[in-house]
Amino acid sequence: MQSFLKFLRWSVGILFIFSGLIKANDPLGLSYKMQEFFDVWGMNFFSDYTLWLALIMNTLEIIAGVALLIKYPYKQTLWLLLALIVFFSFLTGYALFSGKIKTCGCFGDCIPLTPQTSFIKDIILLIAIVILLINLKKVKTTLHMGWGIFILIITTFGVGYGQQQVLQHLPFIDCLPYKQGKDIIEQMKIPAGAVADSVSIQMEFEKAGKRYYFDVNSFPAEFDSTYVFKSRKEVIVQKGNGKFAPIQDFKLYTLNGQDTTQQLVETSTPYVLVFAGEIDSTVPWETLLSKLQIKHKLVYLVTADKSNASNKFKNIPILIGDITMIKTAARVWPTIFIMNGSTIMQKTSYLDFLKD
Hints:
- By secondary structure, this protein is an alpha/beta fold.
- It folds into three domains: 2-169, no CATH class; 198-238, no CATH class; 247-355, Glutaredoxin.
- Helix content is 47%, strand content 15%.
- The strands form two sheets. Strands 6-5-4-7-8 form a five-stranded mixed sheet, sandwiched between helices.
- Helix 1 (2-24) packs antiparallel against helix 3 and helix 4 runs antiparallel to helix 5.
- The longest helix is centred in the first third of the chain and has 25 residues, at 74-98.
- The chain is globular.
- It starts with a helix and ends with a helix.
- The mean pLDDT is 92.
């Protein structure tokens, strides 16, 4: 029995540490995933706090995993893990059974799991933690309290420092489709054998206090103005096979609205894209752009903040992109991409570029 409990304890502890480390490598990615859940639930007022929630969640996962391995404090750690896994099971269960969330972000972008796989994983972990709790008294803690506290403090500071670094200097391991060395055009190609989800637009109407749902092919013959439109949504009729192009939304437009994507990636001269979803006034823009323009002939600012960018910058071409695309391409704003055609030759945080 002792060997079995040790196996469960190490398995659960290592898995929580591994999961926390992967997400701590990219806390903004978890933050964006949290925003997706809050958007679906109509709780957008939490969106401003998702980064802090992500940082705390990652830290808790890693600390709890370490505490379980060193068995200090054992009882409190198991209850914390139980609370975490119940919460995670709710999220993965919601993603699976609602169909509104494609991935739960359990292992970040490095190891994307389907909602079904994530939910099964969490249920197995839940059972393992319950078994450990039931057999709580059979596991003895031998580590001195002082060493236990020291290890957990060092872990907390280490995780905090690591997350601060990636928020300023990009993730240690870039698992996104816009990583250095990738060809954006190649990443936009649909994989062979890909089958997209088959969807139908379902519309909700109200008449005489009753709700009616129709798709475009099922409107009744007597449909008239007495049916009051309420909402519309996409309903998946048949699931695809989950294969899709890693990059689907890379489009760049001039301030006049002209699509310049193809023209840009076919440029024969190496060029620079400076990604910044919003124009942050605390960034030393003048120094940054001046240094870039001295080093490179062609420098473009890519942003979703059209009004601020056009008012602030007069000596640099501005390209407008989708905010979601920019969030995926650049975890730090601004991030500098040195491009050769459609290939990302170098990807650097503006802080690291200014240090060179």
